[in-house]
Amino acid sequence: MKVVVIGAAGTVGKAVVEQLGQRHEIVTVGASSGQYQADIADIAQVRALFAKIGRVDAVVVAAGSLHFAPLAGFTPEQFYVGLNSKLMGQVNVALVAQEYLNDGGSITLTSGIVADEPIRNGVSATMVNSAVEGFARAAAIELPRGLRINAVSPTVLEESMGSYGPFFIGFEPLPAHRVALAYARSVDGAQTGQVYRAWGASA
């Protein structure tokens, strides 16, 4: 299959490229790296991206920014970071990709463990990740031509503990290569409307 991986240069994205690349042709996309570049928060750039790439069999999004801060001082502008990037960015990709996917193709989005397990300073992340999962479940019942859509909910990565460890005390981190298996289940499997939870045993 021809698989587009958006966010291919990130920690999760690299692992997904390595995992799926064992079986499929991979097209890498990043904000400023990869074979193609696009800011997914701008649907015009997403449309231009897929016009260049053409027909594909699967799309994976492992991209999107979030802002972490205490709720007491959170501003609307800080909420818009996650809403515009991780939520609407992924929704933009799904809206455009459905026109370029071959019959039976798939879309895989990324949420995160805090959708189910909130943490301090993570109110925006919980809100956005929950919305991503809700979108995937609802879109699954409307997509035509046998198209599928799922979300992967990773826990904190071992590779990211240096940056995010203080936010995730008591969570069991997973290495990115294990999280990538959940994306493989979505791309190579047959389910739709699912949230694949790539969590440690203690989560």
Order of helices and strands: EHEEHEHEHEHHE
Class by SSE composition: alpha/beta
- Which term fits the overall shape? globular
> Beta-sheet strand percentage?
15-25%
- Mean pLDDT, to the nearest integer, reads 97
- Gap from first CA to last CA: 33 Å
What is the topology, as strand order, of the major beta sheet? 3-2-1-4-5-6-7
Number of helices: 6
Family: Belongs to the short-chain dehydrogenases/reductases (SDR) family.
Pfam family, one: adh_short_C2
InterPro entries: SDR_DHRS6-like, SDR_fam
GO molecular function: oxidoreductase activity
Give a brief description.
The protein is α/β, with parallel strands linked by helices. The chain contains six helices and seven strands. A seven-stranded parallel β-sheet has the order 3-2-1-4-5-6-7, with helices on both faces.
Describe this structure in words.
- The structure is a single chain.
- The chain has about 200 residues and is an alpha/beta fold.
- It has six helices and seven strands, in the order E-H-E-E-H-E-H-E-H-E-H-H-E.
- It has helices at about 10-20, 45-55, 75-95, 125-140, 160-165, 175-190; strands spanning about 1-5, 25-30, 35, 55-60, 100-110, 150-155, 195-200.
- Strand 1 (about 1-5), helix 1 and strand 2 form a beta-alpha-beta unit.
- Helix 1 (about 10-20) crosses helix 6, helix 2 (about 45-55) runs parallel beside helix 3 (about 75-95) and helix 3 packs parallel to helix 4 (about 125-140).
- The protein is globular and about 45 Å long.
